[in-house]
């Protein structure tokens, strides 16, 4: 409750015209030698404000940056 009281004035403004749904995604192919899975993320915006986003480790091991990007794209399309 303390956090909510302290952030009562925070918000996301949805005022962009035209109100177009846009989706963006990206992937990071195993940047650390201790990692075996890549990271994928996406964000969808509407009217210049984020409406949903996600960042996760990929469920399979990719063997290249391109494969990692395609996995991220598939995750975005399915969302």
Question: Can you walk me through this structure?
Answer:
The chain contains two helices and three strands. The protein is α+β, with helices and mostly antiparallel strands and 79 residues long. It has one domain. A hairpin with a 2-residue loop joins strand 2 and strand 3. It is flat, with a radius of gyration of 16 Å. The model has no long low-confidence stretch (mean pLDDT 85).
Separate helix tally: 2
Q: pLDDT below 50 for ≥5 consecutive residues: which ranges?
A: none
Whole-angstrom Rg: 16 Å
Q: Give average pLDDT, whole number.
A: 85
Helix content: 10-25%
Number of strands: 3
Tell me the strand percentage band.
Answer: 25-35%
User: How many individual domains?
Assistant: 1
- Specify the overall morphology: flat
Distance N terminus to C terminus? 31 Å
Q: Main beta sheet: strand number and arrangement?
A: 3 strands, antiparallel
Backbone structural class? alpha+beta
Helix/strand order, N-terminal first: HEEEH
Give the spatial strand order of the biggest sheet: 1-2-3
């Amino acid at each position: 409750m303390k956090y909510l009281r302290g952030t009562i004035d925070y918000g996301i403004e949805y005022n962009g015209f035209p109100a177009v749904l846009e989706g963006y995604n990206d992937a990071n192919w195993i940047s650390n030698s201790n990692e075996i899975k890549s990271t994928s993320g996406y964000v969808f915006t509407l009217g210049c404000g984020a409406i949903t986003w996600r960042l996760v480790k990929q469920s399979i091991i990719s063997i290249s940056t391109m494969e990692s990007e395609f996995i991220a794209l598939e995750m975005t399309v399915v969302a």
